[in-house]
Specification:
By secondary structure, this protein is an alpha+beta fold. The protein has 20 helices and seven strands. Strands 1-2-7-6 form a four-stranded antiparallel sheet, with no helix packed on it. A three-stranded antiparallel sheet has the order 3-4-5, with helices on one face. The longest helix is centred in the N-terminal third of the chain and has 95 residues. It starts with 5 loop residues before the first strand and ends with a helix. The C terminus is likely disordered.
Length: about 600
């Protein structure tokens, strides 16, 4: 049952100002659904809902919306200048309804147009970005190709220059070697001749001796005309012989011996060959031996299966950062530890993890009421009102068996009644929710929050349009007029789409009209309201929707799914003999049993709440 929030408004001749206050603890202003049309204003922030049919027409295209921490403010220009006097229209109800529908349709069409424009703009932006990126890639590709071509040109020029240099060096080296070899061959015939050089100071000249000596002396001791050579000529001849000997030694060195600087200085070779020989004479650097391979062993600490109840608190790691964050398996038996985890996750708004922690605590300590109460609060936050009702009802039943409640027991009973009442209220079961809240207020008359919740519920009963619509629909259904009942149920759903009984009853009307596909859809929606995460769960409130959906599936020929629905229903009510008979008729069958079909019609006729 939605709560009508408080609001205030003011007007001038040209503008209307409206402020809606969303003070409920579970309201999120940022997530609120706001609709402002020319004739209608709607603010939906569960569990609060405000719908206003305006007295005059506004220009909704120029609305100014401001959201604060707990309120939403509107500033909208009027279409026609003037003071209204009243905010809400007092015209005929049918006229107001038609005006509202037309205004909503116009608003939705405008929003659809804006969405299409935004989609088209996004597409164009994406195309622009794509083509721009493509152009940049092409430019980068061209730059890379140019750089590669330039590098190739430079390398080729360096290579050609090196080839020419090597060719010239080789040619020069060959010419030098040829000249040296020719000089050596011309003097090889005089290699055994001994020359005696007498210093000019002593004034001695070579003397003729024996025939052999004289013949030998005639080669170097005399000139071609028989004259005695001068001292300078003899010195040049000796130096020439020494040069030839150095060249011969150089040729021997080139075969593999190590050259010295004196060898390079004495050998008359070209500079290119000298540099080449010097480079060849340098010792080669030996590469180090490759490293031997090794083996590194890595071990990991085993961790139990992940579950929310095993997570560690931040405080556990403050004193010892090296401590393993996973608790020992033995610590899972500590109920206090599980309760602390549940409270921790609830504060972090991780309600599913909190449910797991409290469920584990309940398994270890099933008689403790506080774990069940805390889990019911988590279910309310998860919008799983059926399970919240089941947990609260379990606590109420156990406390009711006590002869006398102490102070803590009274407080727990009030909490359980209030949570079950709120869950009933959210499912549209107003009479049950009001009864529970009245009992809770009677147990704790000084609790202002309970009194406020009860007052909000009572105000909601007065303002809820769906209540009267549902009552009219139920009356039409019992009178045997399911067509009108369906229309009234649809109007009630438009007023508040979260009422469980409306979806359940319209399914019964669809069954009577033989519209089995719509009946199946309504039952599925009903089970989703009960438990959005698990298709209705296994609570008592799911019994009637499961039976009705099973009946619809029988008529549609979907026997396997129908058997599953009836099986789930029998688990909820294991003592129901009719369900046992119906399920036995479906076991192993490929067609719908005739008695079960008759039961489907009877259930549809008798199923109105």
């Amino acid at each position: 049952m939605p709560i009508t929030p408080s609001f205030s408004w003011s007007e001038t001749a040209k503008f209307l100002r409206l402020e809606v206050k969303l003070t409920h603890t579970s309201c999120s202003v940022e997530a609120a659904d706001v609709m402002c049309t020319d004739w209608f204003v709607k603010v939906n922030c569960p569990p609060m809902l405000l719908q206003l049919d305006l007295h005059g027409q506004l220009d909704s295209s120029k609305v100014s919306l401001t959201k604060t921490s707990n309120s939403i403010k509107f500033k909208v220009p009027k279409t026609i200048s003037g003071l209204w006097g009243n905010l809400v229209s007092k015209d005929d109800k049918s006229d107001v309804e038609q005006r509202r529908k037309a205004s909503i349709a116009q608003w939705e069409a405008a929003n659809q147009m804006h969405r299409e424009e935004a989609k088209e703009t996004k597409r164009k932006d994406a195309d622009f970005v794509f083509h721009r990126h493509w152009d940049l890639e092409k430019d980068q590709r061209k730059t890379i190709e140019h750089v590669k071509a330039e590098e190739k040109r430079i390398v080729e020029e360096d290579l050609y220059e090196w080839v020419e240099t090597e060719a010239d060096s080789k040619k020069s080296s060959d010419e030098s070697r040829s000249e040296l070899n020719n000089s050596t061959e011309g003097n090889n015939s005089d290699a055994d001749t001994s020359v005696e050089i007498v210093s000019a100071e002593e004034g001695e000249l070579p003397q003729t001796g024996s025939e052999g000596t004289t013949n030998a002396s005639n080669d170097h001791g005399t000139s071609k005309d028989g004259q005695v050579p001068r001292l300078e000529e003899i010195t040049d001849d000796v130096q020439h012989q020494e040069s030839a000997a150095a060249v011969s030694q150089a040729e021997q060195k080139s075969s593999g011996d190590i050259w010295t600087e004196s060898d390079f200085a004495s050998a008359e070779v070209s500079k290119v060959k000298r540099d080449r020989l010097r480079a060849a004479a340098q010792p080669k650097n030996e590469l180090p031996a490759p490293r031997s391979h090794g083996k590194v062993d890595i071990s990991f600490t085993p961790k139990p299966t992940n579950m929310p109840a095993r997570e560690a608190l931040e405080d556990d790691l403050e004193n010892d950062p090296q401590k393993d964050s996973t608790p020992d398996v033995a610590s899972l038996d500590d109920v206090v530890w599980l309760k602390e985890r549940g409270s921790h996750f609830f504060k972090l708004q991780d309600y599913a993890a909190a449910v797991n922690a409290y469920s584990a605590a309940i398994e270890l300590q099933p008689k403790a009421l506080e774990h069940t109460l805390n889990r019911s609060a988590c279910y309310i936050q998860l919008a799983n009102f059926a399970r919240a009702i089941a947990d609260a009802a379990d606590v109420i039943e156990r406390l009711s068996k006590a002869k006398l409640l102490d102070e803590q027991g009274t407080a727990n009973m009030a909490i359980a009644l209030s949570r079950r009442g709120v869950s009933y209220w959210r499912l549209g079961m107003l009479s049950e929710g009001q009864a529970d809240l009245e009992k809770a207020v009677a147990l704790q008359p000084g609790n202002s929050m309970l009194a406020q919740d009860l007052a909000s519920m009572q105000d909601g009963l007065k303002d809820a349009e769906w209540v009267s619509l549902k009552a009219q629909a139920d009356r039409k259904f019992k009178e045997g007029n399911p067509e009108e009942a369906v229309d009234l149920y649809k109007e009630a759903m438009n007023s508040d789409p979260g009422v469980l009984s409306v979806h359940s009853n319209i399914a019964a009307a669809y069954l009577q009209l033989k519209q089995y596909d719509l009946a199946e859809e309504s039952c599925t929606r009903c089970l989703t309201i009960l438990d959005p995460r698990a298709d209705g769960g296994e609570t008592k409130l799911a019994l009637r929707p499961l039976v009705r959906r099973g009946n619809a599936r029988v008529w549609l020929g979907n026997f396997e799914d129908a058997k599953d629905d009836l099986t789930r229903a029998l688990k909820i009510d294991p003592t129901n003999e009719k369900l046992k008979v119906d399920l036995s008729l479906l076991e192993g069958g490929k067609s719908a049993p005739h008695p079960l079909q008759e039961m489907a019609v009877q259930a549809a006729l008798q199923g109105s709440q």
